[in-house]
Every structure is written in structure tokens, then in C-alpha cells.
Design goal:
With 396 residues, the protein is α+β, with helices and mostly antiparallel strands. The protein contains 14 helices and ten strands. A hairpin with a 2-residue loop joins strand 7 and strand 8. The radius of gyration is 33 Å and the shape is globular.
């Protein structure tokens, strides 16, 4: 009996051992495998090590092109040789301090008369100029608005589903937007308006040493980008600080393009008379571009200005480009205050530290200096609207 009971116990034990729990609960495969945190870290380390291994990571390397510059961004004694007897001493001191040791020029203009209040580094300011970079967009924007091609709200298609309006294109200096405008306008219209706005002709009235700049008589070759590149960052064009200052002055004053005059003695200040080159039909267009110029300072390419000055409204346009080993940085602007406007153009030459936002930063320091010296509190004496009108070609 004992042996029989022991035999039955062995049989039951064997049967139980032969039953697999997997036959009762089938395994379900998972579509995602979640590694442990340690495993993920190890995989990332392996990926990084492979990326820098020449044999296995050559396809993952990034090749960066670094442009080489031969011009220094800094220069001592840039004011040597400047004629200053007829300049505003407060404005001149503010400009010199703001420029610091940078290789550049600062030109300050009273837009209601065309008087040059200060011109620091006159040798550079009166030179043959340089590629205007993205500051050319102001001329192109006015041309497109004048032709009824756009308003500030018109969305221009830039590829795929990407669109942009004039305000954002000016604020962020979008090249594709202005290339599209240039191609739609065509070279003849772009050139016509550029000359109307003073490009390709002397901006000054009897300013010794001033040079002309260049605006081509025909569109640049298509291999260089054609009219699109001319309109996006001024390829093939050379603009002087005085020409750009005269255009921004016309925007600031509502459409009068003055000849710029640079007094060189106290008696010239006492006998100063504004001279009008021509009246531009841009008054209705100025509100259309103002939002973009203001946006550049508030949140766009010129926002560095606000690090130094935020008390008054400033509108402007930056420009950055390079040619033959020299980098250019532009910022053309005006302060719009209750007691009048002042135009400030900063132009820099150099290497990698030179670019449009740096020029805007310098302008911000200048506006700060003017503000701290109560320049925007004492109201200037505005000239009466009896300015002499001179046509281009009139002897100066």
C-alpha cells in the first residue's frame, strides 16, 4: 500500500513538471523596444565616436567655408584730416565715441535741411563707396510700392508654402523676397527709381572730395544673379554713405531729397540755406516701409541698437556683405522724436567683426550719447520752406 501511494505521487510530480506555463499564456511580441537609460547613453557615445572616425564617419562630416579677410576691422586715428569747424560739436563727439576704434565712418544729417551735422572719418565717407548690401532693399521696396506691385501686407511666395510680407522682409532682411521683387520689376524700373532716389549721382552740394559711387547702366550677368542679386544685396552697385544718408533723410522728412551740405566754417552755419535736389513722390509710401524699418530695430537685424538706446523710436536698415577680402557693415537710420529727426549712417569696413548688426550697435551708442547730452530735448531751429531747388546737372 505504501509503495502504491509513493508510485502515484511520482506520476503526478512528473506530469506537473511537463506542463509549460507558456502554453497557457501565449507570448505577445512588442513593436517597440525600450532600452535602459544606461544603454541609451552608451549608444549615443558610440554614435559620436563613429561620427569622428575617418573610416566610418566621412559621410557625416560637415564642411564649413570660412571666408578670409585681408582688411582690419580696427583702425587708429580715423579722424585725422577731418574738417570740423562747421560741425555740431555735440553730434561729432557722440559719433567719435560711438565708433571707438572701429574702421569706419559715421555721418549725421539734419533731414529737414540736408545739413551734415558731423562726418567722422571724412576720407572714407567721401570715398567712391562700397556695395550697399541689404540697405539697397529700401530703394527696391519704394520702387515696388510706387509701381503698385505690393503693399506692406502683400504675401510674396518664396517657395513651397513659404510666404512673407514687406514688413517682415525688411525687418529680417530676407534676400529671397527682394530677389522676387527685383525680377518682377525688371532692371529698367529698378534702375529708374534708384536714380530718382539719388543713387549714381553726387549727394552733396559743393562738398570737396565727394565721389560718385556706381549704379550700372545694365543688368549684371545672370551668372552673378542678375537683377535679383542687385535688388537683394546690391551686387554690382556702389553706394556712398552720403547717398544713403540723403535717401534716408527723404524718408524721414516725407519725401524731399535735399542736396547734402557740409559747413566748414562758423559763417557758413550762419548763412546756411537748404538746397532741394527734387521732391520725391513717396509720402504715401513711407508708412508702408516704416513698420519694417521699425521692426528691424525692435526684433530684427538691428536689434543690437536697443541694448544701448531704447528711449526714442528709431527706424533703420542694416546691410552685411563682402568683396575682395573686405567685409562691409552698414546701418542707415533715423531717430523719430517729438523735437525733430536726425539721420545717422554708419559704414564699417574690415573682417569678421564687421557686419550690419555691429553698425546698428554703434548707432545705438551714438543715440545714447546724444540723449545723455539732451540733444533730443532742445528743439532745433527748423528752416523755413524756402529752400532753393536745384536740378541734377546744375552747376554746384
Amino acid at each position: 500500500m505504501v509503495a502504491f501511494i509513493f508510485f502515484l505521487a511520482l506520476c503526478q510530480t512528473g506530469m506537473a513538471a511537463s506542463v509549460s506555463p507558456r502554453s497557457l499564456t501565449p507570448h505577445k511580441s512588442k513593436s517597440r523596444i525600450s532600452e535602459s537609460q544606461q544603454a541609451r547613453r552608451r549608444m549615443r557615445r558610440l554614435a559620436r565616436s563613429r561620427a569622428v572616425t575617418p573610416q566610418t564617419g566621412s559621410l557625416h562630416r560637415r564642411h564649413r567655408y570660412y571666408e578670409r579677410f585681408s582688411t582690419s576691422s580696427f583702425a587708429p586715428d580715423v579722424t585725422d584730416g577731418d574738417v570740423t569747424a562747421g560741425e555740431d560739436p555735440i553730434v561729432r563727439d557722440a559719433a567719435i565715441d560711438a565708433l571707438g576704434g572701429m574702421n569706419g565712418t559715421v555721418v549725421a544729417i539734419e533731414p529737414t535741411s540736408g545739413r551734415v551735422l558731423a562726418m567722422v572719418n571724412q576720407k572714407l565717407a567721401l570715398s567712391s563707396g562700397a556695395q550697399p548690401c541689404s540697405t539697397i532693399k529700401l530703394s527696391v521696396a519704394l520702387a515696388a510700392l510706387n509701381e503698385g506691385l505690393i503693399t506692406k501686407e502683400t504675401e510674396v511666395r518664396l517657395g513651397g508654402r513659404y510666404h512673407m510680407n514687406l514688413t517682415m522682409a525688411l525687418a529680417h532682411s530676407n534676400n529671397a523676397y527682394f530677389e522676387a521683387l527685383g525680377r518682377q520689376l525688371g532692371f529698367e524700373k529698378v534702375s529708374y527709381y534708384a536714380h530718382q532716389y539719388g543713387l549714381g549721382e553726387l549727394a552733396g552740394y559743393s562738398i570737396p572730395g565727394e565721389q560718385l559711387g556706381i549704379y550700372p547702366n545694365e543688368e549684371i550677368p545672370s551668372k552673378l544673379g542678375g537683377v535679383g542679386k542687385m535688388c537683394s544685396f546690391g551686387e554690382g552697385v556702389s553706394v556712398t554713405p552720403l547717398q544713403l544718408g540723403a535717401l534716408v533723410s527723404a524718408i524721414a522728412n516725407g519725401g524731399t531729397l535735399y542736396y547734402l551740405q557740409h559747413p566748414t566754417a562758423p559763417e557758413e552755419i550762419a548763412n546756411f540755406q537748404p538746397v532741394v535736389k527734387r521732391r520725391l513722390d513717396i509720402a504715401p509710401l513711407i508708412p508702408e516701409i516704416s513698420d519694417g524699418m521699425q521692426g528691424a530695430v525692435q526684433f530684427g537685424t538691428a536689434r543690437r541698437l536697443r541694448a544701448n538706446f531704447n528711449e526714442e523710436e528709431v527706424l533703420g536698415k542694416t546691410g552685411t556683405c563682402s568683396h575682395a577680402g573686405t567685409r562691409f557693415g552698414w546701418f542707415a537710420s533715423y531717430a523719430k522724436t517729438d523735437v525733430g529727426h536726425i539721420v545717422v549712417v554708419v559704414f564699417l569696413e574690415g573682417g569678421r567683426p564687421t557686419f550690419g548688426p555691429k553698425a546698428a550697435e554703434i548707432a545705438g551708442r551714438m543715440y545714447r550719447n546724444l540723449y545723455d547730452h539732451n540733444f533730443f530735448i532742445a528743439k532745433p531751429t527748423l528752416p523755413a520752406d524756402t529752400a532753393t531747388v536745384k536740378q541734377p546737372g546744375t552747376p554746384q
